Amino acid sequence: MGRHQMSAGLLPQIFLIRHGETEWSLAGRHTSRTDIALTLRGEERARRLGDRLRTIEFTHVYASPRLRSRRTGEIAGFAGRMETNPDLSEWNYGEYEGVTSSDIRQQRPDWNLFRHGCPGGESPKEVSDRADRVVASLRAENGIVAVFSHGHFLRVLAARWVGWPAAQGQHLLLATASVSILGFEHKNVEEPVIVQWKLAIRHTSLPARVRFRSSLDRSKTSRARRAGKSLHRGRCRSANESIC
Description:
Elements: E1 13-18, H1 23-27, H2 40-53, E2 60-63, H3 67-78, E3 82-84, H4 101-107, H5 113-116, H6 124-139, E4 144-149, H7 151-161, E5 178-184, E6 192-200, H8 215-232
Parallel strand pairs: 1-4, 2-3, 2-4
Antiparallel strand pairs: 1-5, 5-6
Helix pairs in contact: 2-3, 6-7
């Protein structure tokens, strides 16, 4: 199979890759600064990830400094190529490190990470500001870029890429060892989009061509962008819409 590369001068395309499974992610325990190794299944899915990504010629590969992200990238075939960036680290959970959401809600029934943040850790604004720095950096790239990072941070990053408030990341579920793609519609820097979301490597192959988008993908993205605009105007159309 041939390798795919965007021509010079085209807008960047960003592959967001969540790290493979760990014991803590499997148990639902919040993991930020704690360095947890991948499980055997996490390593296997990282290898499958590499099988899917090897046909793509990335101009740059970035990773969180955390072991689980770096190890996922290494197993996927990017050892020696990754540049670590502290801004790609997971949300700092502070006092909630290693604690599950259900345990937290026994003490704080209304707690929501994307609204309340974590005591002794990062606030939603602090994570949003970090994501904005990453967005600015990625938009200055030229080519296809891979980013190995973490679930909650990547959800905020995707939301900020399209101009949504960071809190809207709570509606973007993200499995371990999954791939999502950010880009632009109509080759226009003013039209950032989520091209594809949560391609699970254990079930799904990447598109035959990197820039392929089905009519369904375009329709979903277009609706999401319109919903985002409605949100900013304070007119969420339905409580059942995931963006609301």
